[in-house]
């Protein structure tokens, strides 16, 4: 296995940064997230980031095109986006799975989202194996392997004092070959993953939910929800967006920005009717989408077990507990 | 230097920079006062834009923040003298609200001088002239506002 | 099980089985030892879920607004801060006193769940920042008080130091500080939704027409949102600190709220929100002799 001691990781990233935009997980006093590598940054190899990496491909606010009215016609111009080749280093199995979910939404079923695709196509993913799950992690229950992320170009293993790199795709191999001089070839066995605090049994849940749209369980589950968007905005897979505009006199631009099905105006129609009038319908939609609708459309769950929503929900809503409730519910 | 600061600097360096000042004038007193100033041919700087509101109490704190966002350099809220409110008590609420608001703006790093409130009655044309002239001079001295700006 | 929990369950059981109330709002234990989320209990056998420990952060008064049409009486457990929220909601005519059975739980000060992350149950955990400045740990309104009142702590909290630090900065430094804070905001509205002072039927930020708040996440809109919120809760904030606790981006919102509360006290005299039902919120009334500093 190609290895590098942890103390020399900065050197590797610095070298890579000459050829790529390198994004690394960094923890500051206030928040942890993926940021572009700069000399002097400390990469956080412990635990996952608070903010998921989804905004790298799908920014919270993204300009789409600008327009200018000229007489009876409109000039439309796209924003020229200069997307560099980028490497995301240290992405966890759960977030790798979330990128797979986003790929399905934005790139399959006959429609390719160019805003997403331009950034996604130029990205190499260097996944980092988890050995110590956080209190709120439960990816294993969803069939993910915390040590081995599917879809990664390179898988990195924590070997204690060093990191071991294994290429998983030709692009990954190319990348490792490019910086081969920085690595030492060592026979190493990756560490094992420690036990998970949270578990969820999802077998049969989508099938069961198919019959639970009108089930009284939603009254109970939604009761304590406050209807904020912390869960959706921190979720690595939530991908709803709204399109809005900024118009000044005869010109302006359109942009898209994250939206959240927990907000009252999310489903409010022109004229004021709201088909999801209360938090019961909204909470139901959230969990139905995660655990049933997405499975039905794309064949996988829209939850990756990262546990961010459990960690940050103001009222301690816990998706594993909700899955348990669904499992126990009488249909 | 941020893009914001660069743009503002550029604006400041332009010799012909003139501050934009928004006056929320109550319909019953200050608006009439401004009208009187005009009728009396009193000269005052053309930097002020007057926005008529039913009462100084109608001025929502959001109006003030929005004004700064959208390019205003100074805001004046003006209404009837205490005791003279057409709606009896509107201006007393204004007084409390904007004492708090001015301190909040200061805490957020704004210069509190950019946000003022005055009582100007319908017969005080000269006072209107004097207040907006003074305010314009003060804001000119402060230079263009760079804070809270919407640069999109 | 601690004595507090035993007392809670006893009273809740009595109230439910005698039919005095049809719903009890309390706290329970979930999958994480450092979280005590809200629980809604309507059956006597569920009373065993109730607990009280150092992580009962949620202000249950907020849920009373969801339950205005609930038939029957509701029992609600309130800490000192929560009880002030009850008074505020009563003042705003959001809830009816006769529909409530308020159970006061004097609060010893809570622990910081963020500090407990990754630790084993029972480990040493920091005190919650929001409880450090608490001047009202004992409920100010209740039908029953579950245990003895606790002494008020008077230590200087980090938020006071932050305000002092900001006050000593130049305006530009202060602006730079808040710029950095607000640029992190992801606009999840957790601060608003957890806040008992935010009890509008429809929040201006949710309105599409007029479009008060643009949907784009940028510094200017974030400043607009947070300053508007500061003005809207001015004089109505009960300083429970929930907004700051729930902010996933750790924006020091209580520094703003505390500062505004202090300004109001300086300008119009002591008028801490939610202490006295008869005393109207400071921006909801006036005095003929109010200061006229900049008029």
Automatic annotation (TrEMBL), chain B:
Signal peptide: none
GO terms for MF: iron-sulfur cluster binding; metal ion binding; oxidoreductase activity
Superkingdom in the source lineage: Bacteria
InterPro entries the UniProt entry points to: MvhD/FlpD
Coiled-coil portions: none
Location of the F420-non-reducing hydrogenase iron-sulfur subunit D domain: 21-143
Keywords, ordered alphabetically: Iron, Iron-sulfur, Metal-binding, Oxidoreductase
Record protein name field: Hydrogenase iron-sulfur subunit
């Amino acid at each position: 296995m190609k290895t590098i001691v942890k103390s020399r990781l900065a050197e590797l990233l610095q070298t890579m940064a000459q050829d790529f935009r390198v994004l690394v997980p960094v923890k500051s006093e206030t928040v942890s997230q993926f940021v572009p590598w700069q000399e002097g940054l400390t990469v956080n190899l412990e635990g996952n980031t608070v903010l998921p990496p989804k905004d790298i491909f799908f920014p919270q606010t993204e300009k789409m095109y600008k327009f200018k009215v000229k007489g009876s016609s409109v000039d439309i111009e796209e924003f020229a986006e200069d997307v560099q080749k980028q490497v995301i280093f240290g992405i966890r199995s759960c977030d790798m799975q979330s990128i797979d979910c986003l790929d399905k939404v934005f790139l399959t079923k006959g429609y390719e989202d160019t805003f997403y695709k331009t950034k996604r196509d130029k990205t190499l993913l260097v996944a980092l194996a988890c050995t110590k799950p956080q209190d709120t992690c439960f990816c294993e229950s969803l069939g993910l392997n915390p040590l081995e992320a599917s879809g990664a170009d390179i898988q990195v293993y924590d070997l204690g004092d060093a990191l071991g790199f294994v290429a998983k795709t030709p692009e990954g191999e190319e990348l490792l070959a490019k910086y081969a001089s920085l690595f030492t070839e060592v026979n190493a066995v990756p560490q094992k993953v420690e036990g998970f605090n949270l578990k969820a049994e999802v077998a049969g849940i989508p099938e069961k939910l198919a019959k639970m749209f009108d089930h009284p369980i939603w009254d109970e589950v939604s009761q304590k929800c406050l209807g904020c968007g912390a869960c959706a905005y921190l979720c690595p897979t939530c991908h709803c967006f709204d399109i809005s505009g900024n118009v000044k006199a005869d010109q302006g631009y359109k942009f898209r920005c994250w939206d959240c099905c927990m907000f009252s105006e999310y489903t409010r129609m022109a004229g004021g009717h709201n088909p999801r009038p209360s938090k019961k319908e909204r909470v139901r939609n959230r969990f139905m989408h995660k655990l049933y609708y997405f499975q039905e459309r794309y064949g996988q769950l829209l939850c990756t077990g990262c546990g961010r929503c459990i960690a940050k929900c103001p009222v301690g809503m816990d998706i594993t507990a909700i899955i348990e409730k669904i499992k126990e519910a009488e249909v | 230097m941020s893009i914001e600061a660069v743009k503002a600097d550029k604006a400041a360096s332009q010799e012909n920079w003139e501050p934009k000042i928004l006056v929320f004038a109550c319909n019953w007193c200050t608006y009439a006062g401004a009208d009187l100033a005009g009728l009396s041919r009193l000269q005052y700087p053309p930097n002020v834009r007057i926005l008529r509101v039913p009462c100084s109490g109608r001025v929502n704190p959001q109006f003030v923040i929005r004004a700064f966002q959208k390019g205003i350099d100074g805001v004046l809220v003006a209404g009837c003298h205490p005791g003279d409110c057409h709606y009896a008590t509107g201006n007393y609420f204004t007084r409390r609200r904007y004492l708090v608001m001015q301190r909040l703006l200061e805490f957020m790093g704004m210069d509190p001088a950019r946000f003022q409130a005055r009582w100007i009655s319908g017969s005080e044309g000269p006072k209107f002239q004097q207040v907006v002239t003074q305010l314009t001079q003060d804001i000119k001295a402060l230079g263009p506002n760079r804070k809270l700006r919407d640069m999109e | 099980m601690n004595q507090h929990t035993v007392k809670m369950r006893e009273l809740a059981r009595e109230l439910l089985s005698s039919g005095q109330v049809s719903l009890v709002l309390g706290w329970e234990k979930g999958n994480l030892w450092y979280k005590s989320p809200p629980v809604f209990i309507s059956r006597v056998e569920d009373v065993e879920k109730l607990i009280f420990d150092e992580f009962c952060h949620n202000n249950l008064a907020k849920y009373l607004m969801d339950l205005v049409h609930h038939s029957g009486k509701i029992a609600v457990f309130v800490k000192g801060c929560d009880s002030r929220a009850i008074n505020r909601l009563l003042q705003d005519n959001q809830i009816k006193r006769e529909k409530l059975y308020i159970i006061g739980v004097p609060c010893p000060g809570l622990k910081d769940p963020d500090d407990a992350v990754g630790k084993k149950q029972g480990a040493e955990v920091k005190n919650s920042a929001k409880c450090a400045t608490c001047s009202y740990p004992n409920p100010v309104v209740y039908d029953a008080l579950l245990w003895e009142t606790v002494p008020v702590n008077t230590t200087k909290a980090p938020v006071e130091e932050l305000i002092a630090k900001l006050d000593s900065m130049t305006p530009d430094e202060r602006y730079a500080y808040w710029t950095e804070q607000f640029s992190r905001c992801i606009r999840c509205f957790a601060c608003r939704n957890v806040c008992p002072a935010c009890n509008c039927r429809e929040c201006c930020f949710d309105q599409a027409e007029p479009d008060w708040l643009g949907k784009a996440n940028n510094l200017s809109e974030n400043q607009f949102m947070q300053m508007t919120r500061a003005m809207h809760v001015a004089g109505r904030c009960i300083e429970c600190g929930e907004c700051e606790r729930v902010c996933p981006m750790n924006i020091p919102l209580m520094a703003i709220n505390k500062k505004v509360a202090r300004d109001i006290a300086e300008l119009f005299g002591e008028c801490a929100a939610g202490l006295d039902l008869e005393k109207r919120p400071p921006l909801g009334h006036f005095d003929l002799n109010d200061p006229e500093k900049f008029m």
